[in-house]
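Sample pair:
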Amino acid sequence: MTVAVIIVAAGRGTRAGAGEPKQWRMLDGKSALARSLAAFAGFERVVLVLHPDDMARGVAEFGGQVTLVEGGESRSESVRNALELLDGAGISRVLIHDGARPLVPAAVIARVLAALEVSAAAAPALAVTDALWRGEAGAVVGTVPRDGLYRAQTPQGFHFDAILAAHRACPEGGADDVELARRAGLSVAIVAGDEDNLKLTYAEDFTRAERILGAKMDVRTGNGYDVHAFCEGDHVWLCGVKLPHGRGLKGHSDADVGMHALTDALYGALAMGDIGRHFPPSDPQWKGAASRIFLAHAAQLVRARGFRLASADVTLVCENPKIGPHALEMARVLAEIIEVEAGRISVKATTSEGLGFTGREEGIAALATATLVSA
């Protein structure tokens, strides 16, 4: 089957309080809408429905990744605009999701798709477990039986032709797509939802979402250590900066001991070995290579596996050359290669008080620690 995803994000979200629309507000460094889209990253055809006022921003942030379409006066009209856009594209199944549900688990999406194998419509929901009251003027005036009641969630899934026909038959719209499907006579299967699949409605919902993200965050730490001996030469490369010196550093590549240590720290945090595994010294193509190639490769793997660098700390151990005057520039170069802000990287130096091979100025050692967090 060919599946398309429609993310509906054209509302203004006034109940969430003052400020920009809730789907554009930040959750741990990414907008709620970006997180909603990321949940469906494995689908080839994604249609994002935006308010006309947000189209320019949508193009800037998501252009080339998804198809953008303007929303209508109501949610139903917005969904219908997206369905009409997809008509004739060979779509057999469609998932319709609220852009304000940024934490939908992959398991919920999978359950909806599985249900569509035997049903023309399916949607996730949670059974109501709390007692239900009717109230007036701040007082309880009655109770409501909770048997058979569910809290609806998204994505709601449908056979494409069936839900398009249902929307066309009810131009006045409905509360959600399940309501329109039922009006059209479709049987809607209920699959298990998830408590984390909350809809951002009120300001306090963002606090809860941040807690959920914090609990789910994957934090990885890696360490790197490297040593290079001095040899003949007139400069050394340290953390991407060329420093004049009376000797050079001996190595298969450019012998940038600081960058090697940091690269190994990134590989270590990913549990992916060290530089030697990815760039064997036995391979002549890496002889004299710039160490930024290794660091950029490690950084690309960090991003590809869904992480980002939270912080990195590099310590150079040497008597000479003096590192202090160049430390900020070194941090800037490393940050540029990894593609993070310089404030996330620290470079510093220490001596070994004349002790050991570094104290005798036979070489330079470097230690690095890198912390990664799930993006």
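The two ends are 30 Å apart (CA to CA).
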